[in-house]
Amino acid sequence: MLLRLIPLLLVFTFFTQVQAQDKLSADLMMKIPRIAEPAISPDGKNVIYTERIVSVEENKSKPTLKISNMAGQSTIIEVGAFSAQWLNATKIAYMASADNGVQLWEKDVVSGKKTKITNRTDGISGYGYSPDGKKIWYSADVKVNESVVDLNPDLPKTGGAKLMDGLMYRHWTAWDDGHFSHVFIADRTDSLVSNEKDIMSREPFHSPQRPFGGSEEISFSSDGKYLAYTSKKLKGTASAVSTNADIYLYNIATGTTENVTTFNKGYDVQPKFSKDGKYMIWLSMARDGYEADKNRLMLMDLATKKVVDLSADFDNNVDDAQWDPSAPNKIIFNAGVKATMQLHTLTFDSALKPTIKAITSDVADYQSFSTTVVNGKTKIVASRMSMSSPTELYEVDATSGKSTQITSALKSSLPDVKMGKVEKRMVEATDGKEILTWVVYPPDFDPNKKYPALLYCQGGPQSTVSQFFSYRWNLQLMAAKGYIVVAPNRRGLPSFGQEWNEQVSGDWGGQAMKDLLSAIDDVAKEPYVDADALGAVGASFGGYSVYWLAGNHNKRFKSFISHCGVFNLESMYGTTEEMFFINHDLGGPYWNNNNAESYKNTPLIIMCKIGIPLSLLFIMNWISEYLSLKVWKHLMLLNSVVFQVNFCTSLMKDIGSINLKILCFGTASFLSFWIPI
Q1: Which of 322, 399, 547, 590 has the maximum number of C-beta atoms within 10 A of its C-beta?
Q2: pTM of the full predicted structure?
Q3: E-assigned strands of 302-448?
Q4: Which spans in 192-264 are helix H?
Q5: DSSP label of 555
Q6: What are φ and ψ of residue 550, in 5° steps?
Q7: How large is the angle between the packed helices 541-550 and 511-524, nearest 10 degrees?
Q8: What is the distance, to the nearest Å, from the Cα of residue 200 to the centroid of all Cα atoms in its chain?
Q9: How many CB atoms lie within 10 A of CB 113?
Q10: What distance in Å separates the CA atoms of residue 138 and residue 135, rounded to the nearest whole number?
Q11: Per-residue pLDDT averaged across 608-626, rounded?
């Protein structure tokens, strides 16, 4: 009877719950504008950026291109536009939809005159201009291989059939349908581009890389004679087991292509050329097959081909790097430092020896940034977020690091909302090391009261619990419901040095799980925490962590929520498309006896001990549906109390605003039933 009552109670709570206006709720969170893609004007007076507003009714968001001065006074440039960049002091380029897909446009922000620059069938996916503005590159999908329909013209009803003759037949949400993202070069004219050329003609490879690569992976040389692009030119099984992406240099005059990073077997991405044309920088991982290897900042002297690791003495990942426009030997980059993201500057001497200094040190995450030079000094505009604030734009002093807020998305949309206090807490691990743990308190926290607490388990496995403001797993939203949220940077997370980051690989059920328990045990000792009302939540590897804790928690927790968690390691090996990931993190296939230690931590076996409430939240597609039913059946046969929500969508990476609301409300409702506030 209890199992039948739970969904009814959840539905009732979903439709009757009223949230006070001064606390964050799922409804209120959806009203916050999503700000991204800042680009500072050449004179440093204005910034263009993309703002997205979510429509829950339409279950989608729509981009709007806006321009703001440094005082935050903004106006709309173009509705439905995004990915803008400045061409000169008054003219911008951007992407926006047309009748035949997304196309490239140009617009004078003073006169308002706009021109469509590309008119490619089915549109484009990215673009860039040569330094002199005479050429552009753009990326677009090209059909290279034949589909099942092409091969069987006499069978007209084969449109949904998939031809799989090798691995990497699907990557995340994208099936191999014979189309590949290619790079084109064209002459830029006063109207439509001309002389368009596919520089990867007939190649069955992607550039930018799928599924996460973008325009940052392609760049013109400073003299406009070359175009550098990123691609992993491997087929089938070789592509599935390797991360060996390279930088290719295309000679525009001769039409020839050279792989300039053959010496490195891991990722090589995001090439950028110095303004004087002497150097190229890019981001690189050394080890093939290790997607969470240290992300290094490399430099090549283009005359001598000498390569230097500029970040050799910097023990964290470099996540984005750009040339400082004020000097030919200066670089600005973004990097994780102790669960935050900070801007840095790097200067190298004639011997290519680097000196690195932090620009910012805020309790925040700096994300994308844009630079220009005004009176010989660098000006920076960057997007920044924290656990208490969604992404806003800031002007950052390149010398002092002082930041001045430009946009006010949160204040303009939710002027009265209260956020809970976020506290950094250092917790001692079982091996004596310290775990940086963020603790988020409910708004109006009263230390004389007792509160239930939630242990937030991060996914990845290698993904920092930084100062993020998420619209799927928002810690402030959890705290607003009346929970104290405990979010530890367990073993295996970046921004604490490579040794710390690597301690999860091959040891999923080891020290990382001990760190999670150490964090919740430490906070649970506080007089304001109800130690009999603890829960654990997480997604992906965080979902794996929830499953593992469910079988190993020694009666600490009253409830668990797992969203798309890894449940069966053997099954994961047989269904994942990124074999390089599981080969590295679990040591290879489960049938190899040398990997028995890794696979013994599969929740399928561990969870036979479970006997308390568990909520499963899945995004419905054929892979996760199979997984969700497998977990559901397993737990039903164990007579466990389970509630399951399946999101009916084919998109794993974007489950839509309506489903996000259901996730938020369903999570809160399930927890409030088993762990009352």
Answers
A1: 547
A2: 0.92
A3: 307-309, 318-323, 330-336, 341-348, 354-358, 365-374, 377-386, 389-397, 403-405, 422-428, 434-440
A4: 236-241
A5: T
A6: -60, -30
A7: 70
A8: 27
A9: 10
A10: 10
A11: 56
Look up residue 483 and give its amino acid: Y
- Of 466, 484, 469, which is closest to residue 524 (Cα–Cα)? 484
Nearest to 485 by CA among 442, 436, 538: 442
Cα angle vertex 320, ends 318, 325, to 5°? 120
CA distance 75 to 66: 6
Which three-class secondary structure state does DSSP give residue 261?
coil
Other beta carbons within 10 angstroms of residue 79's beta carbon come to 11
- Other CB atoms within a 10 A radius of the CB of residue 653 amount to 9
Q: Read off the tokens for 218.
A: 């392609």
Q: At what angle do helices 656-674 and 2-16 cross, to 10 degrees?
A: 120
DSSP at 529: E
Neighbours of 668 (CB within 10 A): 24
Q: Are 201 and 232 in contact (CB under 8 A)?
A: no
Residues 6+ apart with CB under 8 A from 217: 207, 208, 209, 229, 230, 269, 270, 271
Which helix (H) or strand (E) covers residue 24, if one does? none
| 494: its two tokens | 């970046």
Q: What is the mean pLDDT of residues 304-321?
A: 97
The rounded distance, in Å, linking the Cα atoms of 11 and 188 is 56
**Digit-coded pLDDT (tens) for 145-193:** 988 888 888 877 777 788 888 888 888 877 888 899 999 999 998 889 9
436 forms bridges with which residues in the sheet?
426
CA atoms within 13 A on the CB side of 425: 24
The helix (H) or strand (E) run that includes residue 664 is helix 656-674
Handedness of CA 477, 478, 479, 480 (dihedral sign): positive
Strands 529-539 vs 354-358: parallel, antiparallel or unpaired: unpaired
Q: What is the mean pLDDT of the chain?
A: 89
Are 135 and 129 a contacting pair, CB within 8 Å?
A: yes
47 to each of 18, 33, 74, 200, 310, how far by Cα in Å?
39, 17, 9, 34, 30
Q: How many residues does the chain have?
A: 677
- SS3 for 431-488 is CCCEEEEEEECCCCCCCCCCEEEEEEECCCCCCCCCCCCCCCCCHHHHHHCCCEEEEE
